[in-house]
Design brief:
Helix content: over 70%
Mean pLDDT: 88
Shape: rod-shaped
Radius of gyration: 32 Å
Order of helices and strands: HHH
Oligomer: single chain
Distance between the termini: 22 Å
Low-confidence stretches: none
Number of strands: 0
Structural class: mainly alpha
Length: 144
């Protein structure tokens, strides 16, 4: 009986360690993925802003070259250009935000899996204790 308990405790400790390692690996992977995504998003924002700034200068000079710098057509072109710029920035920012949300979701899943496994093991341990107590109860008449 004592050997069974020792084996059960060893197995319980091993499962607990393994679940902890799995959880920690998942949390680390999520953090690194988010870090890389944020770096990529920051670079993309810089690239878009740089190219759009350079393009805006060219856009203005192209309207001036044609002599329509203050026309409705030029204003509409600049407005469309700015709308495109904002949309590109928003798309990149939304992607970065989505990555952060995915990290939170994945981290919650890792913790839930760990906690569920711990609770399952604790329940199994309690059931084993109850089962052992019930089997020992049958010897009560012999103990006086």
């Amino acid at each position: 009986m004592a050997q069974d308990l020792a084996n059960w405790d060893a197995a319980y400790s091993q499962r607990q360690r393994q679940r902890g390692l799995t959880r920690d690996a998942s949390l680390a992977q999520n953090a690194y993925t988010t870090f890389l995504s944020q770096q990529r998003g920051d670079r993309n924002l810089l690239d878009v802003n740089k190219s759009m700034t350079q393009g805006l200068e060219k856009l203005g000079s192209s309207f001036a070259h044609r002599g329509i710098a203050n026309s409705g057509l030029a204003n509409q072109g600049k407005s469309d250009y700015n709308d495109s710029w904002v949309q590109q920035n928003q798309a990149i920012t939304d992607g970065m935000d989505q990555t952060k949300q995915n990290e939170v979701f994945s981290n919650n899943n890792a913790w839930n899996s760990y906690n569920t496994g711990q609770a399952d093991d604790e329940l199994a341990k309690q059931n084993d204790i109850l089962s052992t107590a019930a089997s020992l109860k049958q010897f009560q008449p012999f103990l006086g």
